[in-house]
């Protein structure tokens, strides 16, 4: 029973460990990186923001409808004196006719003309009392811009360019996430391959240490030879431990990029030697397909539209409007009063003179536009230089693969010959140790060459706008 329980625990733990491992291909890591990348998520939010701003700019073409309301309470009544026309019925014509009466002067009496006779008119002097206690007014208005100097059109074009910039920025962030995933994946694969090579090298040294120790006991090997083997064995074990630590860090880095927990065990499905790389022909650098260039190009277009926006601030503005207002709650001499006021209007605003402000602002905007074009030209050259450099690095990485493969073949043959000669007593131990070290270094160089090519290949595709 005591032996069965540990056996079951070991078996159960092995099953859990195998289930915890995830076998992932490079393409799967890319898709997972795109889904978990914070930069891509931020770019999605910025794209949604640009789309909302575009819809808001489009609304500037449409009329604006607004409702207003106000309530007033004036604590004191307003007294007013006024003259009102009066009329009396004419019996002969059955119509109203003006009622002529002496023209009064408030507090003085009737006005006397130059001829000494009273002055008559048809107006009666009436005192009025206006009460605004609880008066209210409500209305609705519709305003439609007719011409705004081109500002609405330019604003909509700028909003459209903002959406296009957001789209290109999203593509740029996606390409960067793919390159980051490729780099982390191939580094993880490369460190894993180096760990395997070091383990093989350590196994060779373990065997050589055992053989040398046996020879030393039989007085067929010197103490110096045994110490050399043990020293090399200790150094390789040190390198192996460092490589395993590096493998663990590479695994955690890949887990972060693909959105897995740091404890997830990833088993790469792709290897560096699955497919022999093909040389990439030297291509003309075309930066027009790169998202970075397109973003800069559209930013330059926005600067041009901004100059039009500044110019529009100093052009006439024409608009039309209509509305309806209703006033109620006021009293005149105790009588309730209400007014219904429908109206239509045409408004025109023409800037006349601003002491040169408009001209200077327009000049500043044009200079900004010209500077943005120069900036675009400068950055286009830098992008082209970067593209050519990455292409050259990729060519060099491909050439290094062939060199490393040839060096590994030679080191493998040299190790075989040295091992056979050492067994026959025709080779020194120092030469055998050097042959083993050269074999291990040749393997490591080939792994680094393949890894560099894989990473440069992803960077090349990003530089060409193909990711």
Can you put this structure into words, describing what you see?
Helix 4 runs antiparallel to helix 6 and helix 7 packs antiparallel against helix 8. It contains eight helices and 14 strands. With 467 residues, the chain is α+β, with helices and mostly antiparallel strands. 59% of the residues lie in helices and 21% in strands. It folds into two domains: 314 residues, Outer membrane efflux proteins (OEP); 54 residues, no CATH class. Strands 2, 3, 10, 11, 13 and 14 form a six-stranded antiparallel β-sheet that branches. Strands 1-12 form a two-stranded parallel sheet. The radius of gyration is 46 Å and the shape is elongated. It starts with a helix and ends with a helix.
Question: How do the helices and strands line up, and which of them pair or pack?
Answer:
Layout: H1 4-20, E1 21-24, H2 26-36, H3 38-58, E2 64-73, E3 78-85, E4 87-90, E5 95-98, E6 101-102, E7 104-105, E8 109-110, E9 120-121, E10 123-131, E11 133-147, H4 151-217, H5 223-258, E12 265-268, H6 291-312, E13 317-332, E14 335-349, H7 357-423, H8 429-463
Parallel strand pairs: 1-12
Antiparallel strand pairs: 2-11, 3-10, 4-5, 6-9, 7-8, 10-13, 11-13, 13-14
Helix pairs in contact: 2-4, 3-4, 4-5, 4-6, 4-8, 6-7, 7-8
